[in-house]
Write a structure and sequence with these properties.
Strand content: under 5%
Radius of gyration: 24 Å
CATH architecture: Orthogonal Bundle
CATH class: Mainly Alpha
Distance between the termini: 71 Å
CATH topology: Multidrug-efflux Transporter Regulator, Chain: A, Domain 2
Helix content: over 70%
Largest sheet: none
Length: 127
């Protein structure tokens, strides 16, 4: 699959894909005889993983570290798990923060509903 197709499929710009390859996030992207990238299933899986982790807020540095550990094989499984666990913990903390913010917003919305209802009642005296 050519880079433009991968870009469209995963919603990642071609410049970003090239950057990810240059910094080591996407390793071993196959090339055809002309030197043009020809993403295979493994490369596409790597793009999908990197996109998912970036969408989850994982830093480029942590992702590069993860991919370097992955290259080293099974001996690094616990270190990779630890990186992912930290990311999971960060996401859970962000979710908790968002839930608190959502509760506050809903409280304020309810408060304004009460204010608006009181204003409407005041405009209709005698009811």
């Amino acid at each position: 699959m050519k880079i433009a197709e991968v870009s469209k499929r995963y919603g990642v710009s071609t410049d970003t894909l090239r950057y990810y390859e240059r910094i080591g996030l996407l390793r071993h992207v196959p090339r055809n005889k002309s030197g043009i990238r020809d993403y295979d299933e493994a490369s596409c899986n790597a793009v999908e993983f990197v996109k998912c982790m970036r969408d989850a807020g994982m830093s480029i540095e942590s992702l590069v570290e993860y991919m370097e550990l992955l290259e080293q094989g099974d001996a690094t499984a616990s270190a990779r798990k630890e990186l992912l666990q930290r990311q999971s913990d960060d996401i859970r903390a962000r979710i908790a923060d968002l839930e608190r913010a959502l509760e506050r917003l809903e409280y304020k919305i309810d408060h304004y509903d009460e204010i608006m209802a009181a204003s409407e009642r005041a405009l209709r005296p005698g009811e």
